[in-house]
Design goal:
CATH topology of the largest domain: Immunoglobulin-like
Strand order of the largest sheet: 9-11-7-5-13
Mean pLDDT: 78
Number of helices: 1
Distance between the termini: 57 Å
Structural class: mainly beta
Strand content: over 45%
CATH class of the largest domain: Mainly Beta
Number of strands: 14
Length: 168
Amino acid sequence: MHTCTLFAFAAAALCSTARAQWSVDSLSVGRRDVAATSVGSTSNTTNALAVTFETPGDPAVQFAVTQRSVFEDTTLLEVSITLSQRVDHDVSVSYSLGGTATVNVDWRVEEPNPFVIPARARRADMTLLVAEDSTQEGNETGIVTLTGATGAVLGTASTMTLTILDDD
């Protein structure tokens, strides 16, 4: 929350009465909520309008769902990455891959790294490709971890675990 004085003026300049009385409870400037109050209101004195801006700060970026399970023959899976609020700029999110499944053999991410959520969007889908094989290997995991962001902060759901169910 930020407070600043927007302007000051003489009370007599506002009206011809001895007292200038005014107040603004709230208004909106862009997408920010504003509360304004008068500071002083006696005759022939300088008044000021103190304004408090409620600024939401950077949005949080995170996975919409942190656990998914698919069979090897699924081939394509879309995972949503969300923002807590819309912003007027692209958000770039870097990520790392891990788990027991071999990256680029058992599964891979089809998106560039960093992944980009376009300006004004609240979410974007990351495409994961799962490979079918005939090897009996048991269930494996693929883990996508959001490691950093530009234009946002990492939320609490920054890791998504994909369980690849062996169907052989």
